[in-house]
Amino acid sequence: EDFPKSEIPAHIGISPDTEAADPNAMDTGSEIKSKKKYHIDTVSLNYPKKDMDVETYMKDGMIDNWDIFEKVMDYSYKKLIQSESEQHPVLFSECPWNKKDRREKICEIMFEKYNVPAFFLVKNAVLAAFANGRSTALVLDSGSTHTSAIPVHDGYVLQHAIVKAPLGADFLTTQCQNFLQDQKLEIVPPYMIAGKRESAEGEAAKWDKKPNLPEVTKSWHDYQVREVVRDFQHTVLQVHDTPYNEDVVGSIPHVPYEFPNGFNDEYGVERFRIPETLFDPTSLRVPGGAAMMGSSHIVTTSVGMCDVDLRPALYGNVVVTGGNTLLQGYNERLNRDLTIKTPSTMRFKLISANGPQERRYGSWIGGSILASLGSFQQMWISKQEYEETGKQQVDRKCP
Predict the structure, then answer these.
(1) d(CA 68, CA 161)
(2) With CB atoms counted within 10 Å of each terminal CB, which end of the chain scores lower, N or C?
(3) Tens digit of pLDDT for each residue in 268-327?
């Protein structure tokens, strides 16, 4: 299959349970006095409710909050897959720096709680390489929390040469938010807006607030505001082909953008300046900014930490994946920077899927390919093996 049938955000809403029964909320079975309601998936998360906090179960690419994670798994089986977990083998992807205890924990949960017939865990970089038809590649993965370069050789990750920088889409969102606040712009999320009227460019917005809004929590409101900023970021930002130069960028036509409350304006120089930090973090006004590495620097550093004989194969197969690489002009700039940095004796080739979906779901598509291979079927950890040797099996069988 080419695309997932459903996608659940890693943020979920948590509110104290009141008497009113909500058919969509799930009973957690914990003690009555601390009962919480979990609002999972896009629709339920984005509807304003009183006292609903937003939390996420991920941290640094790893699962941090197992209770919430299990709620999301329950929801997936009950509402989305609508089938018993005992009937389907499960393939999970993980980040290459996942810790041993977390790998064992997820193995244990899947076998003990969900009784899956078979289970397997694969590094997401390997899957992204498979999705692009490669078994040896250097995978540059730029997601929401960080950008990382991961060398993959014959389907195995070379752990010692992983390089990552904490510059991702969330970081850009924060930069955009700071920029808009410096412009004295009030960002109004769509849930507050009942209607808006046309206003001239750069003028204050004319809009009506919805009556009877529930008292929402700060975390939920901030999440909604960030969603607006993220839309701004996806629409307006662009990476320039050459290193940032104000005079060159100033001559490029501006781009208009309208916020949900009707405020509209044109953006010029800023839309190139903000994403420039992904490639040249030295201009950052944050502590440790000068020590961070730009996207192309990460790739060359990672290749340099690998064996000399592998380098030509890695430079010839640089796979780009992750949602943050969909920024306009990201690939062109990366291609230019790396072509300059690649040693003259080696051939450099950048591989990236054209469609946005293929890059966002790179590891999912790789998993779909891997699980359908005949040769993969003997690699699963079966329920029987788990019962004989326990959760340590995951470290033995899953590289």
Answers:
(1) 32
(2) N
(3) 899 999 999 999 888 777 777 677 889 999 999 999 999 999 999 999 999 999 999 999
Please state, as a whole number, how many other Cβ atoms lie within 10 Å of the Cβ of residue 295: 25
Amino acid, res. 394? V
Predicted TM-score of the model (pTM) = 0.89
Contacts of 23 (CB under 8 A, 6+ apart): none
pLDDT at 30: 42
104: number of Cβ within 10 Å:
17
Measured distance CA(180)–CA(31) in Å, rounded? 44
CA distance 217 to 209: 18
**pLDDT confidence of residue 112:** 93
Q: What is the structure's pLDDT at 29?
A: 44
pLDDT digits (tens, 9 = 90+) for 45-54: 999 998 899 9
| Cα 188 to Cα 2, 45, 192, 221, distances in angstroms | 36, 18, 7, 10
At 164, which amino acid appears? K
Mean pLDDT of 371-380: 92
For residues 327 and 237, what is the distance between their CA atoms, to the nearest angstrom? Answer: 7
Residue 24's pLDDT band, with cuts at 50, 70 and 90, is: low
CA atoms of 1 and 143, how far apart (whole Å): 23
The DSSP letter of residue 328 is: B
Task: Please name the helix (run of DSSP H) or strand (run of DSSP E) that holds residue 231, with its range, or none.
Answer: helix 218-236
Mean pLDDT score, 146-174: 93
Q: Is 201 exposed, middle or buried (0-12, 13-18, 19+ CB in 10 A)?
A: exposed
Give CA–CA dist 61/146, Å, rounded: 9
Give the C-alpha separation, 18 to 374, whole Å.
50
- How far is residue 143's CA from residue 150's CA, in Å, rounded to a whole number? 13
Rounded to whole angstroms, the Cα distance separating 121 from 127 reads 11
